[in-house]
């Protein structure tokens, strides 16, 4: 028996072919919130963040849970990059490598507008195979 549903709506009893997958959730406000709380005590930051979410996992896309999980830069989506975060031994939220800025990010493809921590990356795509993060001494390319 076919499930009834209205075309173009999510009403009705039909289940998705990909049930359990989450699509269309924008966690950009969460990432901005976490970045704005760098230098603050982790416990209240975590409590506030998790109270506004449907699940806690997206917090740990940026915030490393273990030392070996730390990443300088985290890519989320096609072309959005963010500073990796961690909590130090004193319980303070920190950036893994605070020297990385949008000016140091090298776009990895010519078709996307790349961003770092919500700011447009000013460099232009040059060629495939270049490192994602360039040396601070390198002059802007493109």
Task: Give an overview in words.
By secondary structure, this protein is an alpha/beta fold. Helix content is 16%, strand content 14%. It has helices at 28-36, 42-51, 59-62; strands at 63-64, 73-76, 80-83, 85-87, 93-95, 115-116, 119-120. It has a four-stranded mixed sheet, with no helix packed on it. A three-stranded mixed sheet has the order 1-4-5. A hairpin with a 3-residue loop joins β2 and β3 (80-83). The model is unreliable at 1-19 (pLDDT under 50).
Topology readout:
Layout: H1 28-36, H2 42-51, H3 59-62, E1 63-64, E2 73-76, E3 80-83, E4 85-87, E5 93-95, E6 115-116, E7 119-120
Question: Can I get a quick summary?
Answer:
This protein has 142 residues and is of the alpha/beta class. It has helices at 28-36, 42-51, 59-62, and strands spanning 63-64, 73-76, 80-83, 85-87, 93-95, 115-116, 119-120.
